[in-house]
Amino acid sequence: MLGLPDDIRAFLFDLDGVLTQTAKVHAAAWKDTFDAFLRAEAARTGGQFVPFDAVVDYDTYVDGRPRLDGTRAFLESRGIALPEGTDADPPGTRTVHGISLAKNDTVLRMIREQGVQPYEGSVAYVRRLRELGLPGAVVSSSANCRDVLRAAGIEDLFDVIVDGLVAKREGLPGKPAPDTYLAAARALGVEPAHAAVFEDALAGVASGRAGGFGAVVGVDRVGQAAELRRDGATVVVTDLAELLEGGAA
What we know:
Layout (H helix, E strand, L loop, with lengths): L9 E4 L9 H23 L10 H7 L4 H11 L18 H19 L5 H13 L3 E4 L5 H8 L7 E3 L1 H7 L8 H10 L6 E5 L2 H9 L4 E5 L5 H7 L3 E3 L3 H5 L4
Parallel strand pairs: 1-2, 1-4, 2-3, 4-5, 5-6
């Protein structure tokens, strides 16, 4: 009925790219932020400006990760070491926190200007869970998770939300570590073996595999089905509606 093994009793969903069409907004915000930084670095050092790739760099270094981790991972890929800084740094400061805060300001502006659209297939799937009385959670690295869910009109469809604010408060490492998904399963009172993870990010499916979850559904929005399987997906679909129709691969 739900396209997954019958012993799956809880459903844990990533936000951006799985429930809402905000992954492309995040990719654009990262590109805007990193390109501004890289351009300034090239001018400062006399080096060559090599722009952030909103597909390859986004998927490899930042997609699915907590914001600070994504900033660190991308900078490391370019051989750039910056001071950590603090949350008190003005956005755009030449620190890990300053760049991360600039990205957050940019994505919030884009969301305000463009709004948030949910994926209709995902909404249909979650509503089916509600009809069956099955619990669901959102597990997101974003500190803006509730705002996005509210803007998309789907906040009330979930029993538990484990977002970037919860992870920071409880000291949970972000994806690809499994800790945030494990926390959501605990909150729902279900063992990982009886819970399914739904992810579009490579770091996310890796966290599902690391947590020993009963199913890890890779949602392939950008043509990376092979990579999703490689990193931990047990099932890959292009839309969650396929699971309702029995078309999962």
